[in-house]
């Protein structure tokens, strides 16, 4: 009896094999994760090592001087913040509302399926194509000229699909049973969305917005035809001004300015990444605060 | 009696359409057919549910019981592909002709098989429907919340944590919360769809006691797959099978063998494959 029992709990050959296989997969997945974070660490390390030296209050808060060989990045830094903020103001309300319509109101028919397909395709259009669209539509046709408005509109069009897809997915992650419970109580669709669906989808929507911030701040092609300029000593004062932008300034400093100190482009890149990380951290903190209140 | 609130309610005399014989008829269904695309979920059902009775509906899975409840609440408007034909009169009013379906649904409380505690506090769960019909006064809401939770036999367990999340209560508590929420609608009709499926036997008994009390105030449709539960609670019971209503009768008669259809006897006696 006892010996039979003891035998039963002895690892058989099959058990041992399963254990070995399971371990090798764990190591494989762990290695892949390591490979994933290596480039990130290398990039950040290089930027800090090579560009950290130029970062100073002066670098951040003065305009470039001496044909951009010396001085700081203030016009570009402010320009990027303007571009990102205006683009967010334009794309988030439109994108979120459109996603709510598609997910909560529109029926499942060929029309909405076509729209959904179009949105996915729009997300795949290269940014240079958006740039040309922005040039034709906003700069020339609507007559905004090369301005923050035209550039931000272009960025907004480009990033709206991301917002729509992220919003729609987080709306659809809210259990259907919640909606049906409300509808059965005589609630309208809007009452249900307002009281139950949106409060529980907001963290996912913010994720979409964070993604958009990162992407918008780093884009170069869409803004170089529509609003960003090579050099201007003036700080942007309205959405109709032209502006410098960090991403374009990085390209210019790295390739177009002879005799520039080698560390300056690295410094510009570091400022750009720090800006994106700061904006992302703020929204992540907000998201975690909201998630603390998540309710199921 | 159900108290009249700020809610829009159809005129009270509207059930006098010459259909009712003795006690007033709450819900009259004639030739009801429900289909999803080419699949027929329920065909040709006619029945009448009287005021203040518990009307049981028994039958195996896929018999069309849940579809019937959805049709009563006009939820076909929220489910694409669901088609309802036939006549349905609630308090004498044809629900196919009603233009304010939100008012209809707000007068009908529904309890689902799996408890749905909405992701908000216990208090908000119960105050949701009153708020939607325009009650904002805190003191007034407090009274409603306490009364509904008490009637659902949940007050003693949650009175100290009304601000806890409704979705974090245990299954049985959530189901009573759902009942409290349905009662907060001050419903005319309460529909329970296999409410005990995810609830322990003790809680089931407590809810059954609650229902016996409630029968004095509201009409109840009890869909259940436990034939003994129908026997304990229902005044009259309908047996649905394969999308058809096989038989409707006084519940006790179905169990004492006075059935018209052999299939009913087989089902209530548990001899069904």
Task: Describe, in plain words, how this protein is organized in 3D.
- Helices cover 74% and strands 1% of the residues of chain A.
- Chain A is mainly α and 296 residues long.
- In chain A, strands 1-2 form a two-stranded antiparallel ribbon.
- In chain A, a hairpin with a 4-residue loop joins strand 1 (64-65) and strand 2.
- Chain A is flat.
- The mean pLDDT of chain A is 87.
- Chain B has a domain at 19-107 and 219-273: Rossmann fold, CATH 3.40.50.300.
- The chains are: A mainly alpha (296), B alpha/beta (273).
- Chain A binds chain B through residues 107-108, 177-178, 180-188, 191, 195-196, 199-200, 294-296, and chain B through 73, 75, 78, 80, 102-110, 112, 114, 116-120, 128-129, 132, 165, 167-168, 178, 181-182, 185.
Task: Examine the secondary-structure arrangement and name the CATH architecture of the domain at 19-107 and 219-273 in chain B.
Answer: 3-Layer(aba) Sandwich
Instruction: Name the assembly state.
Output: heterodimer
Distance between the termini of chain A: 48 Å
Structural class of chain A: mainly alpha
Q: What would the average pLDDT of chain A be, to the nearest integer?
A: 87
User: How many alpha or pi helices of chain B?
Assistant: 10
**CATH superfamily of the domain at 19-107 and 219-273 in chain B, called what?**
P-loop containing nucleotide triphosphate hydrolases
- Overall shape of chain A: it is flat
- Strands ordered across the widest β-sheet of chain A: 1-2
* CATH superfamily (homologous) name of the largest domain in chain A: MetI-like
Tell me about the largest β-sheet of chain B. 6 strands, mixed
> Proportion of β residues of chain B?
15-25%
CATH class of the domain at 19-107 and 219-273 in chain B: Alpha Beta
- Uncertain runs of chain B with pLDDT below 50, 5 residues or more? 1-21
Percent helix of chain B: 25-40%
CATH topology of the domain at 19-107 and 219-273 in chain B: Rossmann fold
Greatest contact between two chains: A-B, 21 and 30 residues
Number of domains of chain A: 2
